[in-house]
From TrEMBL:
SUPFAM superfamilies: NTF2-like. This is DUF4440 domain-containing protein. It comes from Aeromicrobium yanjiei. Pfam families: DUF4440. Residues 9-115 form the DUF4440 domain.
């Protein structure tokens, strides 16, 4: 049986990828913890602010993101999500297709779940 927390975080995972493809930066920012660390498959690490700056400035332009969740570890204030992500995007002046394994961590802040960590590794 799926818990309400698991359902919520599954929905948030799907929503965050939909928002970056739709370029809805303010809504995406609202899902991110102030201490977000976004680790790209290239090894580059962005903070919340640096990642949002790159998104808003057009450095990253996501054309498509397909993701699946393989498993979750759910605790009262932290959810770890393990899955896959395939994406087509432009990073700087390069068009890239990704096929990655991902781990993300969602933390409960007050009554909201926020993305605290995302790490991508080539599959």
């Amino acid at each position: 049986m799926t818990s309400p927390t698991e359902t919520t975080v599954r929905d948030l995972e799907r929503r965050r990828f939909d928002l970056i493809v739709a370029e809805e930066w303010e809504d995406f920012a609202a899902l991110c913890d102030a201490e977000l660390r976004y680790v790209h498959s290239s090894g580059i690490i962005d903070t919340r602010d640096s990642y949002l700056e790159k998104l808003r400035g057009g450095y990253y332009d996501y054309h498509r993101v397909d993701s699946s969740i393989e498993s979750m570890i759910v605790t009262p204030d932290l959810v770890l999500v393990r899955g896959t992500m395939a994406a087509d995007l432009r990073a700087g002046d390069r068009e890239i297709s990704l096929d990655n394994v991902i781990v993300s961590a969602w933390v409960r802040r007050d009554d909201a779940w926020l993305l605290a960590t995302h790490q991508s590794t080539p599959a």
